[in-house]
């Protein structure tokens, strides 16, 4: 949100209050390595060859970004800054259910990320996630410390299905997931409340350096529309049609500049038109 070079932090004045106002407590970020794009994955070729399809479920309105007290005080050698990590039972229960329900529609595995060997908030997180997990006997539950999770994502991302994370840990891991796909231009994002109202956006930044040049990869925006159809409008068939059209375009070698290593690149408009045509054809 905003240009990084602007020197401002609009997330403090706009994005975080927006999430809080609309009670957008759950953030869903799919991260998938599409067939044919393995060469763009920064991981070793033998790891990329296994592919991966991960859904990062991040709690969005609790934790250290919103906990009180926070601030700065004192001066000189006694100056200090502080933040507070706070999680309530209801916050953990509802995000855990989102993760388990999502896993039921995927490969039936949830990996919950915490730091329960150190943090009291993580101890509560692990206890409650384990309780909720008993309501979903068909879904495998594993717990993993955040430091190990960051390593395992690089070592073997194919082991993961749904990652369940607190606000801070999800912020870190969802960006790591994004980078190993090969391009930020492929990554959609959905932030939802309990009524299904959502804020949908590409997971990448605003890319002001290429604004107006018609070279940006539009797939993240288009996939964000697919998420809107699926989660807010209950139009799963339409969402799947969009996803299938994107798969076909990529399988046929259609590439924007971020993915056109040694091949001809199409423009933003051209990529959008090709995907729209494939949707209309009912791929």
Automatic annotation (TrEMBL):
InterPro entries: IsoCit/isopropylmalate_DH_CS, IsoPropMal-DH-like_dom, Isopropylmalate_DH. Its cofactor is Mg(2+); Mn(2+). It catalyses: (2R,3S)-3-isopropylmalate + NAD(+) = 4-methyl-2-oxopentanoate + CO2 + NADH. The keyword Oxidoreductase applies. Binds 1 Mg(2+) or Mn(2+) ion per subunit. It comes from the Bacteria. Residues 1-275 form the Isopropylmalate dehydrogenase-like domain. Homodimer. This is 3-isopropylmalate dehydrogenase.
């Amino acid at each position: 949100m905003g240009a990084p070079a602007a020197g401002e932090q609009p997330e403090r004045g706009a994005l975080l209050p927006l999430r809080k106002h609309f009670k957008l407590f759950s953030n869903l970020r799919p991260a998938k390595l599409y067939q044919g794009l393995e060469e763009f994955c920064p991981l070793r070729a033998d790891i990329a060859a296994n592919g991966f399809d991960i859904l990062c479920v991040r709690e969005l309105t609790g934790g250290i970004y919103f906990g009180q007290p926070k601030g700065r005080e004192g001066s000189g050698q006694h100056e200090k800054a502080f933040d507070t990590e706070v999680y309530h039972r209801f916050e953990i229960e509802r995000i855990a259910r989102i993760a388990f329900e999502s896993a039921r529609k995927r490969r039936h595995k949830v990996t919950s990320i915490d730091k329960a060997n150190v943090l009291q908030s993580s101890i509560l997180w692990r206890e409650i996630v384990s309780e909720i997990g008993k309501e979903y006997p068909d879904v495998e539950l594993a717990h993993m410390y955040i430091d190990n999770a960051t390593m395992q994502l690089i070592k073997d991302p194919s082991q993961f299905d749904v990652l369940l994370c607190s606000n801070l840990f999800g912020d870190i891991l969802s960006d790591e997931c994004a980078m190993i796909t090969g391009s930020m231009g492929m990554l959609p994002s959905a932030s939802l409340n309990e009524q299904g109202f959502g804020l949908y956006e590409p997971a990448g930044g605003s890319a002001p350096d290429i604004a107006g040049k018609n070279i940006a990869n539009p797939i993240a925006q288009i996939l964000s529309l697919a998420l809107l159809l699926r989660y807010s409008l209950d139009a799963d068939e339409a969402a799947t049609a969009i996803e299938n059209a994107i798969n076909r375009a990529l399988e046929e070698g259609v590439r924007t500049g971020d993915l056109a290593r040694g091949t001809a690149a199409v423009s933003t408009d051209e990529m959008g038109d090709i995907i729209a045509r494939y949707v209309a054809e009912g791929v």
